[in-house]
Amino acid sequence: MNKTEKKALKKQRQREKAKDNQKKDEGMVVNMLESMLTPGVDDGVIKMLNIIFGLLFIVLVIMVILVGSFHYGVMLFFAGGLFFSIQFFLLEASKNPEILNPKKKQ
Q: Does residue 49 contact residue 86 with C-beta atoms inside 8 Å?
């Protein structure tokens, strides 16, 4: 095998790898959209919600430290209340699985 054939083979493998990565990314987006459009709550949605709230807390804490404004502290308090109320609802709803994953009527 000469150098040009090796380069061509290497480029072909890189293209195949890029296509596989693109399919994985599309799969994640498609799964999230399907989860949002179907009744019930998927574990992926709960995980994404927790990540988003975590990032919100980080940003608000940084803003409280940097700016020192009382308003960011209040927003942090309200965000914490919302987060814990959602977590409490999910905890209580997990006791009755039909609430989180309702059966489709046929």
A: yes
